[in-house]
Amino acid sequence: MIKYVGKRLLSAVVTLAVILTIVFILLRQMPIEGYLDNIDKMDDAMIAAKLAQLGLDQPMHIQLLRFFNSLLHGDLGVSSRYRAGAPIIDIISQKAPLSIELGVMAMGVAMLLGLPLGMAMARSKGKFWDKFGTVFIVLINAVPAAVYYIYLQSYGTRALQIGMLFDRTNWKTWILPVFSMSLGNIAYYAMWLRRYMVDESNKDYVKLARAKGMTSWKITVKHIFRNAFVPMIQYIPTSLMFTICGSIYIESLYSVPGMGGLLVDVIGRQDNPMVQALVMIFSSVGIIGLLLGDLLMALIDPRITFTKKEDAR
Amino acid sequence: MGFLRKIKTAPLEDKMNEELRQRRESDPFGFAEYDAANAERAGYSDYSYWKSTFRAFIRNKAAAVAFMILVVLLAFTVIQPFLPNQYPSGKIINHPTTQMQMSNVAPSLTTALVQAKAGDVLIVTPYEDKEWTAVSNVLESLKARTVFTVIEYGDEYCKVTYNGQTGFVKNDFSTKLKLPEDVTAVPYDSRSNFPIKLYSAPADYTNNGDPLFIRTENIRIEDNVATVIRECDLNVLPSTAPFVFGTNNLGQDLWALVWRGTRTSLFIGFSVAVIEAFIGIVVGVLWGYIRKLDRLLTAVYNVVDNVPTTIVLILISYIMHPGIGTLIFAMCLTGWVGMARFIRNQIIIIRDRDYNLASRCLGSRPARIILRNLLPYLVSVIMLRMALAVPGAIGSEVFITYIGLGLPVSMPSLGNLINVGRRLISTSQGYQLLFPTIVLSIITISFYIIGNAFADAADPKNHT
Fold this sequence. Notes:
The complex is a heterodimer.
Chain A: H1 2-27, H2 44-54, H3 60-72, H4 88-123, H5 128-142, H6 145-160, H7 172-200, H8 204-212, H9 216-229, H10 236-253, H11 259-268, H12 272-300
Helix pairs in contact in A: 1-12, 4-5, 4-7, 4-10, 5-7, 6-7, 6-10, 7-9, 7-10, 10-11, 10-12, 11-12
Chain B: H1 9-26, H2 36-42, H3 49-59, H4 61-79, E1 112-116, E2 121-125, E3 132-136, E4 138-142, E5 148-152, E6 157-162, E7 165-170, E8 188-190, E9 196-199, E10 212-215, E11 219-222, E12 225-228, E13 232-235, H5 254-289, H6 293-306, H7 309-319, H8 324-350, H9 354-361, H10 366-403, H11 414-422, H12 431-458
Antiparallel strand pairs in B: 1-13, 2-3, 2-12, 3-10, 4-9, 5-6, 5-8, 6-7, 11-12
Helix pairs in contact in B: 3-12, 4-12, 5-6, 5-8, 5-10, 5-11, 5-12, 7-8, 8-10, 10-11, 10-12, 11-12
């Protein structure tokens, strides 16, 4: 078990390093305007001096080493345009808590609504809830999120009689961003839980329980749901990614002062160091999510073996 | 769909039934003889994988409907520019006499704005087209605060005299006439704080003040005054080509833009689907078939699969120049991974089955084993992935455009039409968001339903 965890951690770290390197090198291919504020007012000597100060005139491998060195010291560089000269770590640490709060709430809401929906669908296979859920899942999966977010914002804010934008102090303005962010995951959880529960309910132990005279509600909750929930664990990383992706759009749509909205902002202003830092943070969250999913799965399901599976050859 | 069922066996069945019937009549209890010819014919199996797949597919009604809608929509998207009465997409349409942009014209199936009755008197505006005449019923445009005399009060139009002319002025919130307390005690002087038009009739035969167009054959002109001979339409433009989806704020025809955008988006979608499938198949086959590559490709897979797709999309679009090529590249960069992994897993499962072993022993080359023995197993999955890649790509395009990294506005796509319309959602121009959204949703939902239904249909377990 410990060996497995160690191996998994190591591979996550290696992956992270590779991704950070790729992102770093890719962003160095951008025009230098993204690193300098007010480039129009500078002459060549000033630009060169500024670049030297930022260390951008060095060869790539030196830059990369410097970058990793400062990264390990918790330094992500300074913003060039968004808030010129401000350390990025400060800007982000102001914004991150709100994003995390929203993301956690959205995932919570998704479970609260998605799992019951999936359960209702599995229980009433072919009847109203199943049909309703299927239509919902098709709509959410097929129509681009960007489209229904817009309509939800417009009609939702009108129905709740609140302004279009997010206001931290007014709880009503939390409803729509959180709900919108959870929609994708609701459909996702419902879809998979239904499938696993339908699979599970055809197994022998369920038939035995029914033969013993257990009520169908008890069978659903005590037997089917529990067993069907285990494979759902592996979808947590994916749903985390959904939430990240949603947060980029939703936060910017509702002007939530969080990290996702920030990314859209700094892209608009071509602030390279900020884009780099945020892209790296979001990719790390993805990797950590997958890692957590794997570890949780290993913890919860005792049937998973930690030895490397040999493929049938 | 009875015609699809047992096309080949039906005549044989009929023939044998007929023979049995004849036998029953002539000799009900006699022995049947062995008929070698019939045995030969009946021993033939009519099973065809693709036919059964197709049959299972159209048995799913939602999928069949989605399929038909999609075919019609795709065909229409392609032929739309060649249809008559279409405006060129992206062309800014100006009013022929005022040269103002025809912006935010509401959607309509005709260009007719109002109907003129026989006997209406209209004022002609100079315009050099024989077939059409530019007309309005504006006798005079009065400056703000011009005083006129009301001689007959009406809730919509007041009959007034000004400078010796008798005409009508609008009486609503847009003119805010200054009226006495007892409005019916005519005559009295009145004025408006805004510029106001003096109409020849209690009706507004203009398009927000711009002249309308009438077919010259319907009027008699004397000294710049046209009398309508018969009831006819007054059009916003000297043409009968309507703005079915209205126009945007620049005065471009939204109908043409939406279909052009659909072409762009579908092009992106199909390109991504094909490229992803190609790379996915090639890599997946190599990954699954060549053992030495397994470790390397698994490492690559772990890296690529770990990064959220959205982040890759954003990063690539940020670094490269905005354009269709960039978008396709960015989407394909990570999209092939899922396909490759699936194909790898399947190939590892079936590559060492007995029939492949036998094939290898008989000296088949790897290329033949892969193309003839392995890939046909995976066709249904490949098709499913391709069908789902199209709506995925269209959705990603909308997302990237929202972030501000998408196509330039000069290159209409559903993404940037939606992005422009987004700001108008709660105004009276909400249709500029609605129409692109509807077309986009129809396309993505159809692809999604078709893809899933096809995956079910391609599974031989669901064949009957």
